[in-house]
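User: I'm curious whether this sequence folds into something compact or stays loose and floppy. Could you predict its structure so I can see for myself?
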Amino acid sequence: MSPMALRRQVGQLAFLGFQGSQIPPEVRSIAHEFAVGGVILFARNVECPEQIAELAFEAQRLVPDMPVWVGVDQEGGRVARLRRPFTEWPSMAALGRSGDRILARRFAEALGRELGAVGVSIDFAPVLDVLTNAHNPAIGDRALGSDAGAVADLGAEIIDALQAAGVAACGKHFPGHGDTSVDSHHDLPVVDHAPDRLDAIEYVPFRRAIDAGVAAIMVAHVLVPAYDEERPASVSPRIVSGVLRQELSFDNLIVTDDLSMKGCSARWAPPAAALMAVAAGADAVLLCEPNHDQQAQALEDLVHAIEDGTLSYQQVEASVARHQRLKSRFLDSDDRGLRPSSRWRQVVGCEAHAAIAAEMARYA
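Assistant: Here's the prediction. I'll summarize afterward.
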């Protein structure tokens, strides 16, 4: 394989964050060098629906012959990067209290229509954590509830309907962030449960999500000593490859949580963590901090690791194949050369979606 071809394959494993309402030159340069797999949008990137649609269109042009994921965290409630005039959805706790699977489907269908209308192709949602610690600072009302079966039921409906609307879903935060007392944005939480407890509670919604065909699962920066006393789940081979890939038989995308979060970056800089995560079995790493030198270094280090034999090329090849398979489903190659239309005007924040949000809000 030529050095350029290898660099292009490695680039497929990264989602890059950036500053501002347009794709900066640094990201264009990285994409040109490495054929980057995706970008992730935050509130710092959002001005209005028309601008997001244009930004998504430009993202698709970053790699001329390969589709590019456009991702966002649009859960509803307090984690929603797209605010008005997009529909502002109540928290998932409200939806969970409704116990209404039909309402969950209607919500996810509407969410998918709005995201798709502005070119977003993967939503890092739904949260599948079972909230067994009511004082959990990271999850709280982001969770669908405290009963594993109910979370699984509603989560599967959301995944099925969101993906039927053309947007890939990403269930999170494996192996479960629901029984923690620390926010992984700031420190490393510990999930101190035995495997049988995890299997009986935490894994239940993820198993159902896998059965529902979820496109991706995000692995959290949480320490699970029962499996690995040293490394967070996001960079642990025993959890990523051993549990999620082998025990749960998940064969779609495994994505890390943002590698700049303190639950990981307090111990390893993002380039080192990216190499550990891919070596552990992850198919994609989130490099959300707009430090473009660091993003490029992470990809350069992955290339060198393959060249010196410390990282398996066959493993990376398998990850790229998963991306290609899912992109062929969720990214329409026929639309890549077309400028965004104004169809978002009939979809974003429409009355029908507002009515669904109001129905959910009755349970808030």
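Summary: Strands lie at 14-16, 38-41, 69-72, 74-76, 79-80, 122-123, 168-174, 216-219, 253-258, 284-287. The first strand starts at residue 14 and ends at 16.
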